[in-house]
């Protein structure tokens, strides 16, 4: 099926819910992104800063770009002028750098706190204790050019849906606890970014507000010739 047809089918599955579809366009050529754009898609997610900057420069300016991969502090300055949402904030140090670069660009940058929910050493993210420590710190309270909009998590890569469901449930529980404790009066804190091509339906069942889909939209990754 075409990219446009894939997007149409996913949006039918989402239905009238408020779940946002992030098209993960990493490694995808400009032509494929344009096809998705022409089908009405406006939210795109990238993993690598250099690739994200190049695509931003060459594609329509009403695209909302999301950084969903691990972000190094020395790369923040390249995306600070235009990024719509950073999903992968995993330390106070990174948050301070985002705030610094946002201030330089006279803007407030939206961020999600990445929580480690998978039982895999390769995944980034903070545990709940680290997030609470961050949010209680005086250093965090000084940051005026960032806005925390919710949480993000990546489930264990497994064929066992029970494990995935438990991890998504855990992330939703963390979100609710943080909302009640730290963000009860903050309407911006409303996003749970979880669910990828293999598990997005389960993620929606467990309360996801943002799903990050690559192969489901663009097809399987093509081997380089």
The residue ranges in which pLDDT falls below 50 over 5 or more consecutive positions are none
* H/E element order: HEHEHEHEHEHHEHEHEH
From the spread of the alpha carbons, the general shape counts as: globular
* Overall pLDDT confidence: 95
Fraction in beta strands: 15-25%
What is the helix tally? 10
Sheet having the most strands: 8 strands, parallel
Name the helicity range: 40-55%
Strand order of the largest sheet: 7-6-5-4-3-2-1-8
- CA radius of gyration is 17 Å
Distance between the termini: 22 Å
Structural class: alpha/beta
Number of strands: 8
Can you walk through the features of this model?
This protein is an alpha/beta fold and 225 residues long. The protein is 41% helix and 17% strand. The chain is built from ten helices and eight strands. It has an eight-stranded parallel β-sheet.
List keywords for this structure.
alpha/beta, 10 helices
In short:
With 225 residues, this protein is of the alpha/beta class. The chain has 10 helices and 8 strands.
Explain the layout of strands and helices.
Layout: H1 3-14, E1 20-24, H2 30-38, E2 43-46, H3 49-58, E3 64-67, H4 76-79, E4 85-89, H5 92-104, E5 109-114, H6 128-136, H7 138-141, E6 146-152, H8 161-182, E7 191-193, H9 200-205, E8 210-213, H10 215-218
